[in-house]
Each structure stands twice: as structure tokens, then as C-alpha cells.
């Protein structure tokens, strides 16, 4: 799998699963992780997604290679 250029991922972009389900909004890129805004979180915490899940950046949308349900299982919380 080709390395993605994460510089295309910007603050306030929508993050959707491969199934088109909205997962959250980008807060910022933190190394190889995408930090999602707390406002979109169901539990009021910041969540991180591995940037390796990004399949494509289309306009203001980050599309993941995993479905929303699978991506939620891969959420990481701040240390």
C-alpha cells in the first residue's frame, strides 16, 4: 500500500468510513494519528485514528479504508 501524504488532511475536514458514515471532524494531525474534535465525540473525549486508515482525501472529506463501525474499534484515546 502506498504511503499517503497526510499534509492534505486539514482541520475541520469531515471523516467518513468506507461505508459513507460520518465518524468525526479533524482537529489536527498528530504524528501518524488523526485527532478528532471532542465536539463530535459521543463520550466527550478526544479520539485518535491511525492515519494509515486513510484511503483518500476528497475535497473537505477524509475517507477511510475501514467502515465506521470498524474504525470506532480502532479509536485510540490520548495518553
Q: Using the CA coordinates, give the radius of gyration.
A: 11 Å
Structural class: mainly beta
**Mean pLDDT rating:** 89
Strand content: 35-45%
Count the strands?
A: 7
The shape, in one word, is globular
What is CATH's topology name? SH3 type barrels
CATH H level, superfamily name: PRC-barrel domain
Question: Could you say what the CATH architecture is?
Answer: Roll
One letter per element, helices H and strands E, the order comes to EEEEEEHE
The largest pleated sheet is described as:
7 strands, mixed
Instruction: Specify the CATH class.
Output: Mainly Beta
What is the share of helical residues?
A: under 10%
Distinct helical segment count:
1
Distance between the termini: 28 Å
Organism: Sphingopyxis soli
Pfam family, one: DUF2171
Protein name: DUF2171 domain-containing protein
InterPro entries: DUF2171 (IPR018684)
Describe the structure.
There is one protein chain. With 79 residues, the protein is mainly beta. The protein has a single domain (8-77), classed as SH3 type barrels, CATH 2.30.30.240. Helices cover 8% and strands 39% of the residues. The protein has one helix and seven strands; from the N terminus they run E-E-E-E-E-E-H-E. It has one helix at residues 68-73; strands at 14-16, 22-30, 33-36, 47-50, 54-58, 61-64, 76-77. The chain has a seven-stranded mixed β-sheet with strand order 5-6-1-2-3-4-7. It is globular.
Amino acid at each position: 500500500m502506498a504511503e499517503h501524504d497526510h499534509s492534505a488532511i486539514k482541520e475541520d475536514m469531515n471523516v467518513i468510513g468506507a461505508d459513507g458514515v460520518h465518524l468525526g471532524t479533524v482537529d489536527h494531525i498528530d504524528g501518524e494519528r488523526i485527532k478528532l474534535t471532542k465536539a463530535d465525540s459521543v463520550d466527550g473525549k478526544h479520539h485518535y485514528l491511525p492515519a494509515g486508515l486513510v484511503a483518500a482525501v476528497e475535497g473537505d472529506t477524509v475517507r477511510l479504508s475501514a467502515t465506521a463501525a470498524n474504525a470506532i474499534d480502532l479509536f485510540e484515546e490520548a495518553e
